[in-house]
Amino acid sequence: MRGAPSKPKAELMAVAAEPAADTPLDIGELADLLGYSMKRAQLKVFDHFLRVMAPLHLTPAQFSVLLLLERNPGRNQTEVANTLGILRPNFVAMLDSLEAREFCVRKRSSSDRRSHVLMLTEKGKATLARAKKLVAGKHEARLSEVLGEDNRVALVQMLAKIAREL
Amino acid sequence: MRGAPSKPKAELMAVAAEPAADTPLDIGELADLLGYSMKRAQLKVFDHFLRVMAPLHLTPAQFSVLLLLERNPGRNQTEVANTLGILRPNFVAMLDSLEAREFCVRKRSSSDRRSHVLMLTEKGKATLARAKKLVAGKHEARLSEVLGEDNRVALVQMLAKIAREL
DNA sequence: TATTGTTATACTCTATAACTATA
DNA sequence: TATAGTTATAGAGTATAACAATA
Questions:
Q1: For A41-56, what is the mean pLDDT?
Q2: Which bases along strand C come within 7 Å of a protein CB atom?
Q3: Given a cut of 80, is residue A9 above it in pLDDT?
Q4: Which of A66, A90, B23, B46 is the most buried (most CB within 10 A)?
């Protein structure tokens, strides 16, 4: 389909001719706009992540929370949410869901009874271990395949620099 | 603030000590996750775009539509929306807003009365010209300043490759 | 008085079904 | 019957105000 440009209709008489339908649009300067390529690429990357992670039903945001809890056990909700750029009110439902799936627990802090100390459960640790293997073996590996490993690393460095310095 | 780590409270007796509050969390493996850096960077880039474009009140999505209409006059809503990855139903309100601001017009196609042919108005062209100057002079220029011009170009190429091939 | 977790709420984006008018 | 534009609607994601418990 879409092979031969068969045009049975006579269009010779078209006056202020409308453009050749069927032809892909020219994105022009959009191709050089960093924000445009970044948004399109980001959607693809998250979509690929979700497909790879489908067996574990973890979103990128959930995975990032589990990673952070593993590396920083005993922190409170405000600290974790802030680190990830999540607003505290929006972090509540997210934690509810992770706690309902028994990946982590909230515990009243003994030193400050206002705050909840967060920790992974054994189930959370096990799930995170499986998730990491999927991400490394199927997700990041695919990105290295597309870009080349050196470029993938360079790309992450540039993105981190933008996030830090822009 | 946050200069000297003044710790008046005696914490020597803490048994299963909670982590040193006040210390930034360790993002660990998150720093190497492409999707994570890309999301954080993308938010920063769009935020910067919005600040630069504040005098014209144009979002990245609106700017991309105007660019596409300029380069591809006479296309219909489905074609433009598809090219930008916008769903047709969601494109309606967006066009309503751009048309209300007199940046573009919908015209019934003479060859297919179902479709609307889209074109920039003179006001739309003039606004787009101003927008392009802001983007080139203040937005992309800032990104080149942060990354270096060669790296900025290389970055766009890698992002485009991901959008195409992942 | 200030902070933690929380609720309520609102606004934007995104996604799907279904209608209408044309083809 | 199929397609273009549209409406309605629902779900994420994100943002702010305010309250109870605690500091």
A1: 98
A2: 3-9, 13-18, 21-23
A3: no
A4: A66
Long-range contacts of B142-151 (CB under 8 A, 24+ apart): B142/A166, B142/B48, B142/B52, B143/A34, B143/A162, B143/A166, B143/B45, B146/A161, B146/A162, B146/A165, B146/A166, B147/A158, B147/A161, B147/A162, B151/A158
Task: Report yes or no: B143 and A166 within 8 Å, Cβ to Cβ.
Answer: yes
What is the C-alpha separation between A86 and A82, in angstroms, rounded?
A: 6
Beta-carbon contacts below 8 Å between A and B: 197
pLDDT bucket at A22, cuts 50 / 70 / 90: confident
What's the pLDDT score for residue B109? 96
- Strand D nucleotides in reach of protein CB atoms, 7 A cut-off: 3-9, 13-18, 21-23
| Strand duo B116-120 + B104-108: pairing | antiparallel
Predicted confidence (pLDDT) at residue B12 exceeds the cutoff of 70: no
Instruction: Check B38 against A41: CB less than 8 A apart.
Output: yes
| Plot region of B85 (φ>0 → left; ψ -120 to 50 → alpha; else → beta) | left
CA distance B166 to A152: 13
- Whether the beta carbon of A116 falls within 7 A of nucleic chain C: the reply is yes
From the CA of B100, how many Å to the nearest CA of chain A?
24
Q: Residue B139 CB: number of other CB atoms within 10 A?
A: 23
Q: Kindly state the DSSP code that residue B125 receives in the 8-state scheme.
A: H
Tokens standing for residue A44: 């693809």
**Chain A residue closest in CA terms to B81:** A25
Phi, psi of A161 (to 5 degrees): -65, -40
Q: Give the confidence band of A104 by pLDDT, cuts at 50, 70, 90.
A: very high
Model confidence, pTM: 0.90
- Contact present, B84 and B65 (Cβ < 8 Å): yes
